[in-house]
Amino acid sequence: MSETQPTKTFLITGASSGIGAATARAAVAAGYRVALAARSTDRLAALAEELGGPERAIAVACDVADHAAQQAMVAATLAAFGRIDVVLANAGIGSTAAGIETGDPDNWREMILTNFYGLALTAKVCLPEIRKRRGHILLLGSRAGRRTIKGSIYGATKWAVTGLGYNLIDELEGTGVRCTLVEPGMVDTPFFEAPKPDALKAEDVANAILYAVSQPAHVDVSEILVKPTSH
Questions:
Q1: Which of 12, 68, 156, 169 has the fewest CB atoms below 10 angstroms from its CB?
Q2: 168 vs 151, residue with greater confidence
Q3: What is the CA radius of gyration of the chain?
Q4: Is the Cβ–Cβ distance between 116 and 89 less than 8 Å?
Q5: pLDDT confidence of 3, banded at 50, 70, 90?
Q6: Whole-model pTM?
Q7: Helix (H, G, I), strand (E, B) or coil at 33
């Protein structure tokens, strides 16, 4: 970026691994500073150091289900970099057991709070800064939010994210703020216990995210569905 153009800041929740970490690497390569948020900062600290240390990347401990923690995340980002231009609401967890009858209600609660409520909170706390910059907010949904998966509470949380994305896109229409709902199919990340060699790679989704973000200001990529060729 030129000396006369301030370096933009890209905030990412769920940044410690998988899609979040891949997006952080892609964002730094594209010239952004990054604020990396997750519940644990152990892996975040190593990633922040890899990406250039405190002048380029900071690690922030944040439970996205906690409104005050998300407000503190925004405050820490502004204290470090002075602005937020792009946010990826990416934090999410999976199911510990399939099916309604056999599922774990405690896991259901955590998924709902993380996968849906947490994303909504990220949008809420970041939008005042995003509006100032006419920036970009991205919600990480899933192909599971566009199809039925028998007995899947996880899938239901992603249907909720799809609805949130459509509603937020409508809310922001005409404001100059861009909003993108990103819906990947299966991705080979630590989200799964076993490797998924035929799935997407985290970098594939990061590339899709940076495609949306890199468009000219008059272009708003509202939705991206990306899936493996083999599925």
A1: 68
A2: 168
A3: 17
A4: no
A5: very low
A6: 0.93
A7: strand
